[in-house]
Amino acid sequence: MSLLKYFKPTSSTDDDTDSTGQQPSTSSKRPQADRKKEYERTKRKRGFLPKWTKEFTWLEYDHALQLMYCRVCKDCPDKADTQSSFYLGCDSFRKLSIQTHDKSKSHLMCVLVKRAKENPKDTSMGKAIAKINASNFEILKKLFRTAYYVAKEEIALAKFPGLCKLQMANGVELKNTYINDHACGEFIKSMAHVQREKTTEELTAENTRFLSVLSDGSTDSGIIEQEIVYVRYLSNGSPETRMVKIVDVKHGHAAGILDAIDDAVAGVGISPDLWESKVICANFDGASVMMGDVNGVAGRLKRRIPHIVILHCVAHKLELAVLDAIKKLPFLLEFEETIKSVFKMYYYSPKKRRELKEIGRLIEEKVAHFSGLKSTRWVPSRLRSLKAIETNYAATIMHLENMSTSQRGEEAAKARGIMKAMQTTRFVKCLHFMIDYSTILAKCSEGFQHEQIFIGHVKEIIQSTTSKLIRLKTVPGESSAISSVTFYHNLLSSSGENRQTYKGVNLTNRRQSRLIPEAIPDSSDFSKVLDDTVKYLDARFANFDEEPLSCFDIFDISKLPHDRQAVSTYGDRDIEMLVKHFESVLTDDEIKAIPDEWSDLKIWMSAHRGVGRLIDLYGDLIRENPPHLSKVLVLLQVLLTLSPSTAACERGFSTMNRVKTCHRTSLLPDTLNNLMQISADGCKVEEYSPDKAVEHWFFSAKGTRHLEHKTPAKSNVVVDESESEEEQHRPIFEAAAEFESGSDEETDSDF
After folding, report:
1. What pTM was computed for the model?
2. Structural domain total, the chain
């Protein structure tokens, strides 16, 4: 029997004609979904509805960018889907899109994390923590403090078990749980996370209006190129500089370094939009890859953030200006080679240093240590070297003379050559001049390395330095004055030749290897050194006399005129220039009100002449925030936020070299970053409170925290059977489950 009778035959005419026998229109054939899509595309205009924020409390809308964001996901970048449209900015104004995100797995996870942060005691883990008795919680805190000591003192994680056992031997109550280097690393990870969260809160706070980024590069002991990023901001009216992150550089060109900076910023949970709306300054060293106006990091940042101020580190500028002045004078280059020869001879030879100290004891003179000459912070390092040469002069000459006679070959020839160079009047005169010269520049360099230095300080320090250098042309410095009065004596030798001595050492005006007298530098030679230094300092720091940096001079109270008529118009043009330059980060109300409030600020400045340091006065004023000056104080915040020095980065690399030594070259990037965060920005060990880190350690566990875990007993040890093995290994989540189920039974925690 055929099955065809159960199916109705179709006719072509039925499909192609309607009830009237005519062909249907194209619009009637088109599916309803296609018509709806065309309507959405061509006619309907969707927009953001404010009522959505009442139904979805996590939703926020940026009116300027016309984008929707998820506030919760942005607050939890570690758990959020960073590629989600609601994390980057969503322009699909449909309720369905919002509902989809509201039910997404990553969003729900962020909601749980945020809820746990706000009310940790209400979560299952928080309830479990509450079940832990006080003594066991104190033991955890002791372990965390010990781990904090390991990180703060920059010692190996492997030392953690030994420190714990030492404390146990001294009577401190600790159990055997989590006493290993892996647990120490986990503790440090939680402590660093809590510290980064604090930094993120400060950087993203509404009262933190502006940021300056500081960045520098170096190579660590593992021959890995690292880029360290710091941020400067105002905290309660005072400038603060905090480490953001140290990042492996994937590529050494400008694009690679800029990617590393962006990666560091994203690592502390700052969105690109927020970052670019707050950054007003970038401070780098003088490398062309950093400072290039077209393809360098500076040029790329300038195209991305037009109002950003690019600064070359003032401490690096000082070193370059000094080197420019020194390298053009042959007698100083020869003097420098002699200094380097002395340090190479003694720095790398413990035997020679020991012999030098023996000679010092014989002649009853204390011998200074010949440290290595540093390439960074050249001026302070050079001053210490010169003072060591001056202190050890007599002992060094005696030791070199002994080496030249008691030894043979290359060592004797080297000692004889250095001794002859040091016994000349030329060398001694240069030595004392360079001590006076370097003393002035070292003070300038130390001022540039101060953590709270701001733009107003730079010109003040440079003016003071150039003034002292010019004065040195006519008034001898302390070292030169002492040498001319005390150390030089005209003596008549047995042959009737006029001789000079210094610290009991006979000097000569001749090169020992030649018969012609050497040219002894006189005051005109030293004056040329000073004039060249002043000239190069002025050239290197000329950008501080250009806009917009020069406009900040109006906030220097010492430059405020005394005449009332002059005060009335003082700084008006500079205020206009500053408002125009930074208008993209100022509100409309601030742009309108700043010129009027500037007049009131001048009255305040006039009343505070000579009262105290400028940075302290303005810091107190920003904290006070009087209503009639609230708008113009924004420019003072810009002034104090601008960072002229990257000395913090140099200190960061010093920390990196102490943490990642040649014995720890395999440190993972995250571990290195955690250790440096604590070492660089952490509080003192005795002031550290581990409570928040302990809580984070609980919340961040992928599995269970076996706080009551005990090491299995050996077969030859009698085990107390009153407590079952199941009770010994009871994880904390079971305690949490009992608490949530309403059980009133109390459990004993043996940690």
Report:
1. 0.76
2. 5
